[in-house]
Design a protein that fits this description.
Layout: E1 4-7, H1 12-25, E2 30-34, E3 48-50, H2 56-66, E4 70-73, H3 79-84, H4 86-107, E5 110-112, E6 115-116, H5 140-159, E7 163-164, E8 166-168, E9 170-172, H6 185-196, E10 198-201, E11 209-213, H7 214-226, E12 238-239, E13 243-245, H8 247-255, E14 262-265, H9 269-276, H10 285-291, H11 299-313
The chain binds nicotinamide-adenine-dinucleotide (NAD) and serine.
The site of serine has 10 residues, from loops.
Length: 320
């Protein structure tokens, strides 16, 4: 049975991951932490502690106090926020990561810190982007993500820390809003479709990016953490994705259920240029072959579920 510390647990991934891990491993075995207090409890019942990941001593004290064996390190600034605050992004994403992986080394913890499609750059092959290829990201977010991949590999080879990671695509979910990324439009579009029947996308028509529905992302984390170590040749970090979509693809999927929905564009040049530096579609075959990655939601299935769940959450009572 794992005993897990999660950093950044109140974010888009952490809130749902914490609740799910508590179901799988037991509430008392999952310690949720974040730099801020929860506004309401969406992580299920269980222990919550304030932790700023730039403070290694505090992290270490929690690991010792709760006798933990796994560290899931989610605290980070996402791509658009990191581009607006590059120095802070370096501090949280890099110094926080270094603290976390050091705590993992000293205490013999299994370690997971997600990378991203943001770890790729404009020189990366755009379509069916291979697992191992040129990366050279041009954003501060991407620089911290590729550094995280390399640092995690270094800690595995040099110190034997059991580091594992995925390159998440944009994640779409209805529980917690995303924290300031380039792919956030793919969540906003569902909220606005239900509220206003129209959405102005900050990403331009025709801009394909990889995406995945949150239940598949949570399953992937648990599956990778439980995978047979002898099969993991690529460790940090596996390409994963469930769909490659542009804004108009999501709009068409929504229109199947809400025919009156209208998509317009108000392109944000900063986030558009970040999106254009990322791949269109990833080759996920290494994740499939090495630990059985198998997402359940394609665009249509995800759209139907998102609209249903959000309709209830927002009390919009749209006839779907
Ligand atoms: P998020 O922005 O929703 O949540 C991040 C959390 O970190 C927030 O709750 C924030 O309060 C916390 N935090 C910020 N600074 C902190 C600090 N100094 N100490 C402790 N906590 C701090 O992010 P997310 O979407 O849940 O992403 C989690 C991880 O997954 C990140 O590493 C991100 O790069 C990666 N990722 C996310 C996506 C996505 O689409 N959500 C895609 C690819 C990779
Ligand atoms: N969703 C994330 C972002 O846009 C991808 O890492 O920043």
């Amino acid at each position: 049975m794992k005993k897990i510390l999660i950093t950044g647990a109140l974010g888009q991934i952490g809130s749902e991951l914490t609740a799910r891990l508590r179901e799988v491993y037991g509430s008392q075995n999952v310690i949720a932490t974040d730099i801020r207090q929860p506004e309401f409890s969406n992580t299920g019942t269980g222990i919550f502690e304030i932790l700023d990941v730039t403070n290694q001593q505090d992290m270490e004290m929690l690991v010792e106090e709760y006798q933990l064996d796994t560290l899931i390190h989610l605290a980070a600034l996402l791509s658009a926020v990191a581009e607006a605050k590059p120095q802070l992004a370096w501090d949280v994403n890099m110094n926080g990561l270094m603290n976390a992986v050091e705590v993992a080394r000293v205490h013999g913890l299994q370690f997971f810190c997600p990378s991203s499609i943001g770890a790729f750059g404009p020189q990366t092959p755009k379509d069916h982007t291979p697992q191992v290829t040129i990366q050279r990201p041009t954003t501060m977010y991407g620089i911290t993500k590729i550094s995280g991949e390399l640092l995690s590999d270094y800690y595995f080879h040099k110190f034997g820390v059991d580091t594992r990671s995925v390159r998440f695509p944009g994640l779409i979910s209805y529980d917690t809003l995303p924290g300031g990324g380039t792919t956030d439009y793919a969540v906003d579009i569902f909220y606005e479709a239900l509220h206003k029947k129209t959405y102005a996308s900050f990403i331009a028509a025709g801009t394909k990016m990889d995406m995945m529905y949150m239940p598949d992302a949570i399953d992937a984390i648990i599956q990778l953490l439980e995978a047979d170590a002898s099969r993991l040749h690529h460790r940090n970090a596996y390409n994963i994705s469930a769909m490659s979509v542009a804004p108009e693809d999501i709009a068409r999927a929504i229109q199947k259920y809400l025919p009156e929905f209208e998509l317009t564009y108000a392109v944000d040049p900063v986030r558009q240029s970040i999106a254009e530096s990322w791949p269109n579609s990833l080759d996920v075959s290494c994740a499939v072959n090495e630990w059985g990655f198998s997402p359940k939601y394609d665009l249509d299935r995800m759209t139907k579920d998102m609209l249903k769940k959000l309709n209830k959450k927002l009390e919009t009572s749209v006839a779907l």
